[in-house]
Amino acid sequence: MISIIASDMDGTLLNNEMTVSDFNADAIRQAQQQGVHFIVSTGRRYSEAQPLMAAQGITAPLITLNGAEVYDASGKMLDMVPITKTVSRAIFHTLISRGYYFEVVGNDGIYSNNKAKRIEQIAHLLTNLNPDTSFKIAVTLASARLELMDINYVDNYDELLNDPTKHVMKIITFSQEGPAKLKPLSDELLAKHSSLKITSSSRSNIEINNINAQKGIAVERYANMLNTPMTDVMAIGDNNNDVSMLKVAGISYAMGNGTNEVKQLASRVTDTNVNDGVGKAILEVLAQQ
């Protein structure tokens, strides 16, 4: 019997309008009413993820930044797993020397050292989600959206490392050339630093975390807190950064829009994120309880 459901957000729980559909929300509420614990497991920050759930009136624990932070349903932080500052400094040096644009997610917000590049990355995301949108229009939309986002601009990322109150939770590196360029970089970083876990949430990025900051590890810790065996845990995801939790869950669902790796790994496949795949998977499992 499923007692815990863990769901990714982007490409999974969220549709292409970046909202939780009424169908998905109703399915989550139905699960909660039946005593099933629902937990969000996302690469997003808490401040980006929680409002999306609150908009549907849903209260749930959140695993954020791929497992680097874990919050209970009231918003209290339960766990934090940063990248050490020594390793962070070395990663910064490698990325800068190779000419990569990257962003740093700290314990107090997102940091960027290039506003134009930040706009460009959001524009690429918008065109990927909505292919009918021209890149020029996407840049305009991205510029407007950027004003609503809590971004900290710095001249040098070393500012974070020199402040004892700040911690590096995740580093996101971008390239529109995709895996052809990012895979060798990932291999290089992993060869140098055994303390890292590198995943991705799209073809155009890699997400660098502490090796102990993984969705699967965080879901297991949460299940242990509830004295729930992993055979009673269900996980839903669509991309590389969901693999660790799909591997440990008793029932795993890949989204219809998921990567081939995720589909081959998961025990089941549901509909796409734009067709309420999460809600359909939840209702399917509830009907079998």
TrEMBL record:
Molecular-function annotations in GO: magnesium ion binding; phosphatase activity
InterPro entries: Cof, HAD-like_sf, HAD-SF_hydro_IIB, HAD_sf
Entry superkingdom: Bacteria
Coiled coil (UniProt feature): none
Cross-referenced Gene3D superfamilies: 3.30.1240.10, HAD superfamily/HAD-like
Keyword list, A-Z: Hydrolase
Any one GO cellular component localisation term in the record: cytosol
A Pfam family the protein falls into: Hydrolase_3
NCBIfam families: Cof-subfamily (TIGR00099), HAD-SF-IIB (TIGR01484)
Name this protein carries in UniProt: Hydrolase, had superfamily, cof family
